[in-house]
Amino acid sequence: MDDEEARTRLLDAAEALFYAEGIQAVGMDRIRAESGVPLKRLYRLFPAKEALVAGYLERRDRRWTGSLRAAVTAAPADPVAAVFDWLAAWFSEPGFRGCAFLNAYGELGAGGPAAVLDPVRRHKAELRALLADALPPGPDRGELAEQLLILVEGATAVAALAPGPEPARRAAATAAALLRAADGRAG
């Protein structure tokens, strides 16, 4: 097995275990056992657990944000509705356990290692930018993106407690009302 395959196997194991059980509940020896990568190679590729956690979050961000962006791009007539449709599908996936980034932040807190908290903050900034891009141009675009971010995060937190599409559907209805109100103010 070369380093790229070992890295992929380690990140696959880390993602499955950290997302399902939590970062602090899973040790490096468990990651080694699940991945089949020798401990010496694990520590050569990821010298500390925080490097592995950061790698897991960065990879998850690329995949998650890329998938959401593709859904929004594919729905030019109503990109905001596409956000909530995508969330409804995600909330219905087997094993859904909420937002990996908020889960990591919740476990580690504001004083956690920067190597881990930086990907969390970048992810939320990327999500905010994606939401702004989904909105029509206008003077309230930044404020509306912030409000949509709160709806997305709130729906995700509610769905973590009761998985299924309903939190996304309720948030979508709220987003539509918010956009209608903003359009009325602009007109």
From TrEMBL:
GO terms for molecular function: DNA binding. The keyword Transcription regulation applies. The keyword Transcription regulation applies. Pfam families: TetR_N. Residues 4-64 form the HTH tetR-type domain. Residues 27-46 bind DNA. Keywords: DNA-binding, Transcription, Transcription regulation. It comes from the Bacteria. This is TetR/AcrR family transcriptional regulator.
